[in-house]
Amino acid sequence: MNEMSPSRPNNLDSFWMPFSDNRHFKGTPRMLARAEGMSYFTPEGREVLDGTAGLWCCNAGHGRREITEAIQKQAAVMDFAPTFQLGHPIAFEAAARVAEMTPAGLDKVFFTNSGSESADTALKIALAYQRARGQAQRVRLIGRERGYHGVGFGGMSVGGIGGNRKQFGAMLPYVDHLPHTHDPARNAFTKGQPEHGVELANRLQDLVALHGDTIAAVMVEPVAGSTGVLVPPKGYLERLREICDANGILLIYDEVITGFGRLGTDFGAERLGVTPDIMTMAKGLTNAAVPMGAVATSNEIYDTVVNNSAAGIELFHGYTYSGHPLASAAAIATLALHREEDLPGRARAIEPYWQEAAHSLKSAPGVVDIRDFGLIAGIELAPREGKPGTRAMDIFRKCFDDGVLVRVTGDIVALSPPLIIEKPHVDRIFGTLSDAIHAIH
Ligand code: PLP
User: Fold this and answer.
1) Which UniProt keywords apply (predicted)?
2) pLDDT score for 170
3) Could you tell me if 294 and 330 are in contact, meaning their C-beta atoms sit under 8 angstroms apart?
4) N or C: fewer beta carbons within 10 Å in the chain?
5) What gap in Å lies between CA 47 and CA 240, rounded to an integer?
6) 160/143 Cα distance (integer angstroms)
7) Residue 100 within a domain
């Protein structure tokens, strides 16, 4: 034991916490010390039911013995070895398992350590591919308003969240954005995919008219998670795919949230019936037990980049920890669990119950919209006048005190539980949330 009490660390000063209100947190800290199954436990032993799978990432639930043991075993065999001009078997094995799971045609896997790195890697591969096939003028990247692709300069620039950019000045220069698809006037309280908004995909056609053949790729989340659960309207992704195909543009999906069972299928591409050319992954890939991300591409993209380069290194990109042995072990064990326990099937089976429970909050005070798809739900509240975000933040704090972890973004409560969730957990999450919404105005 070190001297630091598990319930009250002596010193909160050194850790500059990410995406946090450091000043408020350090005054009234909320600590999690242990996790098992559907729950976290505070240092004092109080249970907090996990309504968010950590940060949309512990899809198989917490503390899975199979994953822990795989990591321990690998750590004892080999802690680290480079994957630059060297290999270790477990990284190749992990890539093969990922490629087995990704949609047909997305067969080559590049490893990263996070969703942000996956986004930047996908954008760089898209640019390298266009150049390799003789389209070096294609330097432009298209994102979407309210898109989140992590915090690297590529993902941040292509992402569409002003608040994440304004502190940092200049972004990548050759970037443009599609409008977001959120249309509460026509789609509020829709269950599943909204009816209205397919025409918003035609804005890509307008960008093609504007930028000509300088567009390399379009990157979107199949369902936007971090900006409050924005489900694509019916036909929207189909139309984006058509416009990309007709104009030599690559379609990139950011499946960091929607991958690994979250939408009731292995990937969002399958549930939504539209396959991209490049797909990013992270989070559920290792059940978040060791950081790891990945980018899957078609053989055509790989072959074009690899075969059109001079002898030697073909893609000048990679991370010290690409295919890290411990992460590879965690990924292999996680993907095995995913199949053995049919996590997508479990998500699908409970989705109707989840959906009804989410929409049961429709008449709660201040609720202006509810959205859901797969095992995701977003409950949007009217903001307090002049104080946006504070109402949802107070609801988050009350739910935590009452034993349920929810996530908030602006005045939207976003839920994404582990896929092993059962009906009593669903009842508890929405019951606690309902009480908090009724109590806090
Ligand atoms: N892309 C999407 C769609 C995400 O939701 C996230 C994180 O929430 C990221 C990228 C960034 O992932 P990370 O925080 O692992 O860098």
Assistant:
1) Aminotransferase, Pyridoxal phosphate, Transferase
2) 87
3) no
4) N
5) 44
6) 7
7) yes
**Do 188 and 321 share a domain, yes or no?**
yes
Distance CA 206, CA 104 (A): 30
Atom of ligand 1 nearest to the CA of 152: 16
Task: Specify the number of domains making up the chain.
Answer: 2
Among candidate residues 135, 138, 164, the one with its CA nearest the CA of residue 152:
164
With a 6 Å cutoff on the Cβ, whether 120 touches ligand 1 is no
Whether residue 5 is contained in a domain is answered as: no
> Distance (Å, rounded) from C-alpha 167 to C-alpha 162?
9
Alpha helices, DSSP H, located in 28-161 = 53-56, 65-77, 89-101, 115-132, 153-158
Tell me the residue range of the domain where 196 lies: 67-340
Burial of 119 (0-12, 13-18, 19+ CB in 10 A): buried
Distances from the Cα of 437 to the Cα of 48, 379, 384, 398, 401, angstroms? 18, 10, 13, 9, 14
Whole-model pTM? 0.97
Q: Is 101 left (phi over 0), alpha (psi -120 to 50) or beta?
A: alpha
How far, in whole angstroms, is CA 50 from its chain's centroid? 17
Q: Kindly list the averaged pLDDT for each block of 10 residues, start to end, along the chain of length 441.
A: 52 95 93 97 97 98 98 98 97 98 98 98 98 98 98 97 91 96 98 98 98 98 96 98 98 98 98 98 98 98 96 97 98 98 98 98 98 98 96 97 97 98 98 98 90
Assess whether 136 and 248 both reside in one domain.
yes
Domain boundary among 315, 340, 365: 340
Query: How far apart are the CA of 256 and the centre of ligand 1, in A?
Result: 6
Whole-number pLDDT of residue 8:
61
Q: Report the interhelical angle of 115-132 vs 299-307 (nearest 10°).
A: 60
- Are 318 and 371 contained in the same domain? no
Q: Which pairs from 387-395 meet CB under 8 Å and 24+ separation?
A: 391/366, 391/440, 391/441, 394/440, 395/433, 395/436, 395/437, 395/440
Q: What is the ipTM of this complex?
A: 0.99
Residues 50 and 170 in one domain: no
Instruction: Output the CA 121–ligand 1 centroid distance in Å.
Output: 13
